[in-house]
Design a protein that fits this description.
Order of helices and strands: HEEEEHEEEHEHHHEEEHE
Strand content: 25-35%
Structural class: alpha+beta
Number of helices: 7
Radius of gyration: 22 Å
CATH architecture of the largest domain: Beta Barrel
Distance between the termini: 78 Å
Shape: elongated
CATH class of the largest domain: Mainly Beta
Largest sheet: 5 strands, mixed, barrel
Length: 213
């Protein structure tokens, strides 16, 4: 009887440990600076790093952000904590590998913003401020555009040179494409032009930043 009770207690404790364990998996794909894919318990799981927002790949530093997060965790075992699901069903998590909090490292090194609209994490907010003051990573750019502004298209409307009568897009001195203001292809030159004029002059929309047509 005592042995049976001992075994029952041991099994219960083991179940409790498994249930309470934080998921661990190997990173097999990097989508961008804040989204990775793990091989987790025999399946692939896409994970969005919570509390941060990295530049879109069409933005300046978008590709460098993807490369930086790859240097931190690609093909490594990572642990997920503080997990939840967003309204799109994506898994949100704090990602840790080799005792490095990847979410914090991306903000600290200047390759992601603290996503303050959805996160009140004081540490991320502090790291964001310090990286900005030190001009780390994307903060070395003269005019960094927050990815949420880039996605919403609100950035164009907030610019002093935006035209009130019509839509403003941007071209370069040598290219034949027109772009959104935050597009990475505008780093060397950036010339404001109305959408109507751009189209009449034979410019075509950039396939990366997908400006208005």
């Amino acid at each position: 009887m005592k042995r049976t009770r001992y075994l029952s207690l041991l099994i219960a404790l083991m179940i409790g440990i498994v249930v309470g364990a934080e998921p661990t998996g190997r990173v097999v794909r990097i989508t961008d600076g804040d989204t990775i894919t793990l091989r987790l318990e025999g399946r692939r799981e896409r994970v969005r790093l919570s509390g941060i927002d990295a530049p879109e790949r069409a933005q300046p530093f978008g590709e460098r952000a993807r490369q930086h997060i790859a240097s931190l965790c690609f093909q490594r075992l990572v642990t997920l904590s503080d997990t939840s699901r967003d309204v799109y069903g994506r898994l949100l998590a704090v990602v840790t590998t080799d005792s490095v909090n990847v979410n914090r490292a991306m903000v600290r090194d200047g390759f992601a913003w603290h996503y303050h609209e959805y996160s009140s994490d004081a540490t991320l907010a502090q790291l964001h401020s310090e990286a900005r003051a030190a001009k780390c990573g994307l903060w070395s750019d003269a005019d960094p555009v927050a990815p949420w502004d880039f996605r919403r298209g609100a950035y164009e409307a907030s610019q002093p040179d935006s035209q009130t009568a019509g839509i403003t897009v941007y071209v370069t001195r040598t290219g034949r494409k027109y772009h959104r203001s935050g597009c990475r292809y505008l780093r060397r030159s950036k010339i404001a032009i109305s959408l109507e004029d751009a189209k009449s002059q034979g410019y075509t929309p950039c396939s990366i930043c997908k400006p208005p047509r």
